Amino acid sequence: MSWRITTGVDVELTAFFNSGDGWAQPWILDVELIESLRFGPPAGHTDLDVATALTRLLHHDFVSHGTDGKSRHLNDDNVPLAIKAHRAVLERLALEPPTWPFRTFDGPHGFGTYWRDNDMSGSWKARRDYVEQLLGPTRDALEDLQELEYERRFTKGPSGSFKNLIFAADGAKPQIVLRDAVNNDVEIVRNSDTCLVFTDPLPPHGLTWRQMVAWWRKNHQPDADEKSAADALYRRLYRSLDSPPEQLLMITYCARYAEDGGFDLPALIPQVYLHYDPYTRRSGKQSGALYRQRMDFLLLAPDRSRIVLEVDGVQHYGRPNPPDEKGKVTHTAVPRLYAEMVAEDRRLRLAGYEIYRFGGWELTAPGGKQLLDAFFTDLLVRHEKPTL
């Protein structure tokens, strides 16, 4: 049996079967191959190849079962194997697998029972629409990864690695050198021990707290359970903050992690020194790196919005004067500082970022926590993951 590549990143569906002539019957699933996919892709192929083909297979077969029922390739015995392999491959790609309300075509826990119980009995279109709702987001996310893979393969220049996030320094500021602007090959030349570096591929639909905790466990606490690792990561991130308004913002947002579903909220990433985001690239010739002296906070939302939160102290727009006779320090407004700040905001907005600024004064005044709670509630509703 051979794996045939059709588009450079897609595996021909017949690769999952060990007999059959093209799309003609019979189709006999290669069970050994399907089960092996749960542990890794076959030699010479990638998880992206496999995930794309499995998504096509499951989409085709469930649409077929819900309509004419004549061109199905799986059966009730082996469709659960395909679903398990599909889930495992997507998780390796840091993509959210579909939540299946059924595991077979027929029977008490099958698709047929599900559509009868959910008012789809009289409509083939309703069943096709439901399968699209179930698997469409996965297909879209895989297409995004395919596009990035295409750019990676055909961008000229030396191969290199990139650091997606450099953040949360709890000591001296890291000094970063860009070695290769095409591949965003960066090096921290000083103070690398004070900051965190997230090098996993950024998931297409944002970065959740659960994914951040999984990264932390893998790299820093492999023996910890999820809750213990989350607590340690939160404490480490909190140590990077040195102003009460920033600390209040982080405490207020991160309290939501303890609520139902809180681990699946976007992760609040503090003190971001470098952010590499493939989705901000206009062409393969641009590095995609976003530099700033420091972003106070970054959220990578599930609707692909990139949200910057800034907490402005007086140092953002003024310079301190010498202390008066009572030791009190006042500040003088410096228009140049303000102009530099808003110029950088314009650049980020043109790159597709949303920027929200808070005055340190308003967060330390009475009602600061309530102001933040209301803001985050509205922000998260606005940036929910789109549904079909």
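Second entry:
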Amino acid sequence: MTDVLDGKIAVVTGASSGLGRAVSEILTRRGAQVFGVARGEEQLRQSMIDVAGAVGEQRYSASDVSDSAQCAAAVQKCVDTLGGIDILVNVAGSHTLRHTAEIADDEWAHDLAVNLNGPFFLSRAALPHLLERGGNIVNVSSIAGLEGQAYSAGYCSAKHGLIGLTRAMAMEFTGKALRVNAICPGGMMTPQVTGFTFPDGVDFDLVMKVASPRGLMEAEDVAKMVAFIASDDASAIHGAVYSVDNGKMA
């Protein structure tokens, strides 16, 4: 399995920590060249050094995925530096628990911008390059894209939308050498999950309905699924949505 992605060029968002970093590590380990995207430049730079050894600035882009121009620039930087794109993994996301009646307009817009607009902006920019090389997109949705979760109206809406985007693109490009798929992780040992804060007055029985009886997963376990779907071993997988959730949805 060490060279199953040998020669592939992968753009991974959210690459500075959590699942994005784990995906970057697994893809690199299996032979891919990874171009990392995340907002915080110093943490991203260090992550890319840790993942792929000493690399120059050209191997990452400190970009806000909610900004379409920054997404387009990040994609172009990868193409200019590495010569193309074979894989786009849209990992970057944001989940804040809020009482629905108290969600401000800017908070709602932020939830959609990071979790849905970002994957669209990056996919749109990468499509010509992916089509040229017969590449693929792996969108990281969530079990929140398959079920309702309390205090997560914005996040659930965006993640449901990301599944819709995945299926729409899969249908549109059925006749092309491009694959588009999504995975829906459950709870993982990542900073986003372990750093959750709760608004006053939440019903913790409702919050815990999202938990798997097997507990939290390691990010690397989910990253291995991403690596498989992104590889040529999954050449028959197109338009699929996979739960990777320690049995939660069962």
